[in-house]
Design the sequence.
């Protein structure tokens, strides 16, 4: 079964609106990461949040982590058509050399111009 | 800066034929290397990972194998492809420890 599961599966918004995507996981983690994938391409790392952090920002991205609820959210503010892509959360359970990421199924975001 | 190369971009192979996908990384030493497979609507499945030359860990028993003959080279192979091997194969690298993955552009494999 998937460790991380994103919600919703698909999201369609108007350019300029904010997009909020959620991720839930089942077991304790070392860190949680968000990735973006344009159609037919590899994934690109967006942001990493460690288990002892609650919020991180990077440009128009804001990620929160609630370890008590085992959930994370990715907020994209003032969305643009170029933000159209699939977004994945990935959880890292272990430390050091045993580090391995487990990915969710992804959220398809469409931003209408 | 570091770069990752993965080839070919697309591949159509008949059932029963062999497979060899190659991935190389430049600009870093002793990276962790990974092979993932992405099926439509199913997210990414970790197939193999390697923390050093000749060290391969398999996550899912299947028709595939991986090798790391050099520090920055990772190869995914099969002796006889199955229809179920079709998918989008992604190679990735990371620094040792809990660091982000850097992905190649993937290989779209269609087994006919």
Sequence:
């Amino acid at each position: 079964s998937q460790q991380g599961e994103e919600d919703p599966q698909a999201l369609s918004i108007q350019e300029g609106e904010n997009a909020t995507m959620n991720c839930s996981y089942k077991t304790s983690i070392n860190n949680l990461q968000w990735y973006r994938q344009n159609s037919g391409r590899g994934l690109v790392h967006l942001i990493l949040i460690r288990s002892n952090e609650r919020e991180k920002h990077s440009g128009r991205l804001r990620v929160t982590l609630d370890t008590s609820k085992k959930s994370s959210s990715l907020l994209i503010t003032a969305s643009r058509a170029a933000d159209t892509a699939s977004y994945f959360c990935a959880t890292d359970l272990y430390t050091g050399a045993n580090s391995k990421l487990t990915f969710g199924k992804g959220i398809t975001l469409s931003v209408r111009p | 800066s570091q770069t990752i190369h993965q080839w070919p971009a697309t591949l159509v192979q008949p059932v029963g034929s062999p497979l060899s996908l190659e991935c190389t990384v430049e600009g870093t030493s002793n990276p962790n290397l990974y092979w993932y497979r992405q099926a439509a609507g199913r997210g990414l499945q970790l197939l193999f990972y390697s923390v050093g030359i000749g060290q391969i860990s398999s996550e899912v028993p299947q028709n595939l194998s991986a090798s790391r003959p050099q520090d920055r080279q990772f190869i995914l192979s099969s002796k006889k492809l199955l229809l179920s091997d079709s998918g989008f194969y992604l190679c990735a690298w990371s620094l040792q420890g809990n660091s982000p993955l850097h992905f190649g552009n993937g290989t779209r494999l269609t087994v006919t």
